[in-house]
Write a structure and sequence with these properties.
By secondary structure, this protein is of the alpha/beta class. Helices cover 33% and strands 16% of the residues. The chain has 15 helices and 13 strands. β12 (405-410), α14 and β13 form a beta-alpha-beta unit. The longest helix has 21 residues, at 253-273. It is globular, with a radius of gyration of 24 Å.
């Protein structure tokens, strides 16, 4: 159920094979040196950069010496860049990794990639587990493929915070869940904590495997390590293609409530001793347990927001702020809908529908705005998040006649290439809905952005 910032399990772009320049700011040191998009940085101060971390580390001073390859003539040219204090070099790269992505060496029982439809595009099956993406982009990693040299690099370069998947602490349970390299992940994690690296941790909770006593043991282990400043617990999600799992916490109210109750004393101790909640459950657990989501202060500033921790609370609180601070805009939208006899539908996954309904009622008390919850038939199982909506489900479930309807699509259903997980393009979907008579816009799914997107629609709609 947890919302995602992007449905971007894998880009359609090929992996990087060097530090290729994507953009150069006019007037910047890189621009003055003659560096252009399409060139490649071969060396920085004599070092071949493996990733954006190397670039930032080596080019940290007032000057740096580069070797730049120009594919236009096949030459490599040395140059020196100088900058003023606080000035950026003015160069962006096509990727943050210059030597390709580190893939996963595990065999996790709950791996979502193993539950994809057989017709899913090949790029979706790329299982990354790259510690650099943990630091640079917030990906969760297991650390099972990190060498001693790489662990030392993380500490030396201060790559903090890191997002680390723990899942369980008992060695036998970890090996059952993750695979034969499970022990290595904890060894590296201990090294990072000893080196002062802050960690945001995660547990994917699987019924009957790492919950109950095993979850308590893992919480005890985390509680004793202050360097782990937050722990997110998210439930197993499964698709209709899973051969191992056919149910989860979404199918068991009492099991969900048991997890909530087990966490409460750990949360209370952390608030009492540290002033933070630290141990946090994903929104799914509260929904599945039929309990209200906790207040905002429970979420410690939302350090794991994009792991589905506190998204519903944040949406509800922002709805209240919009109702208070932008009441005139809300009235204006409802007035235009009434005047032109238009309906407005906010597309979302089934999991978010009740929460988004709260905003719909604020936007139009007369009911001219509603959610359009899309059932996920493509993945099936208990998949019901907005970020995993696919084109075939969306187009099959929206009416053939959308005359007089404004359709707001959630930006999170598209990856960075504006593709859905079943490979359709945003442009094609928009064109198809327009052919049915709809006025279409795309928005980040939160109240303020919804309102901005609606207000920016053509005045003659």
């Amino acid at each position: 159920m947890a919302e995602q910032k992007r449905a971007d399990y894998a880009s359609t772009r090929p992996q990087a094979d060097g530090a290729w320049v994507a953009f150069v700011e006019e007037g910047s040191p890189a621009w003055e040196a003659g560096i252009e998009p399409g060139m490649r940085i071969e060396r920085v101060n004599g070092v071949v950069p493996r990733d954006l971390i190397d670039w930032r580390w080596e080019a940290d001073g007032a000057s740096c010496e580069l070797e730049v390859y120009d594919p236009a003539d096949g030459t490599t040219t040395p140059c020196e860049l100088w900058r003023e204090p606080g000035q950026d070099w003015g160069v962006d790269f096509t990727d943050v990794l210059f030597d390709g992505i580190r893939t996963c060496v595990n065999a996790c029982q709950f791996c979502f990639m193993a539950m994809l439809p057989p017709e899913a595009r090949a790029t979706l099956t790329l299982r990354d587990d790259d510690y650099r993406l943990s630091f640079l982009q917030g990906n969760f990693v297991t650390l099972t493929n990190v060498s001693d040299d790489e662990a030392e690099r993380i500490v030396t370069c201060g790559l903090s915070p890191m997002n680390v998947s723990i899942h369980a602490i008992t060695p036998e349970v970890r090996r059952s869940l993750i695979g034969r390299r499970a022990d290595r992940g904890i060894e590296v994690l201990e090294q990072l904590l000893a080196g002062g690296i802050e960690v945001h941790a995660q547990i994917v909770l699987c019924p009957g495997i790492n919950d109950g006593d095993e979850l308590a043991a893992t919480l005890d282990w985390v509680e004793a390590r202050p360097g782990i400043t937050s722990l997110a617990i998210v439930p197993l999600g499964y698709t209709k293609h899973s051969r191992r799992f056919k149910s989860s916490y979404s199918d068991d109210v009492e099991a969900s409530r048991a997890v909530v109750r087990l966490l409460e004393p750990y949360q209370e101790r952390a608030r009492r001793t540290l002033g933070i909640t630290r141990f946090q459950l994903s929104d799914e657990f509260y929904v599945d347990a039929g309990l209200p989501v906790p207040p905002a202060e429970t979420y410690d500033g939302y350090p794991q927001f994009y792991d589905g921790i506190g998204m519903l609370r944040s949406f509800l609180d922002e709805t209240a702020l919009v109702a208070q601070d932008r009441a005139d805009d809300l009235c204006r939208v409802d007035g235009v809908l009434a005047e032109k006899d238009l309906r407005l539908e906010l597309v979302c996954g089934e999991a978010a529908a009740e929460t988004i309904d709260v905003f719909c009622r604020e936007l139009s008390p007369a009911g001219r705005v509603r959610t359009r919850a899309i059932r996920n038939d493509y993945f099936g199982g208990d998949v019901n998040v907005t970020g995993l909506i696919v084109s075939e489900d969306l187009l099959a479930q929206l009416p053939a006649d959308l005359t007089g309807t404004i359709v707001v699509l959630p930006e999170v259903m598209f990856n960075f290439d504006r593709l859905t997980l079943d490979g359709d393009t945003q442009d094609h979907i928009v064109d198809e809905l327009r052919s049915r008579g709809a006025l279409v816009t795309v928005s980040v799914p939160n109240p303020g952005d919804y309102l901005d997107a609606i207000l920016s629609l053509p005045k003659n709609a």
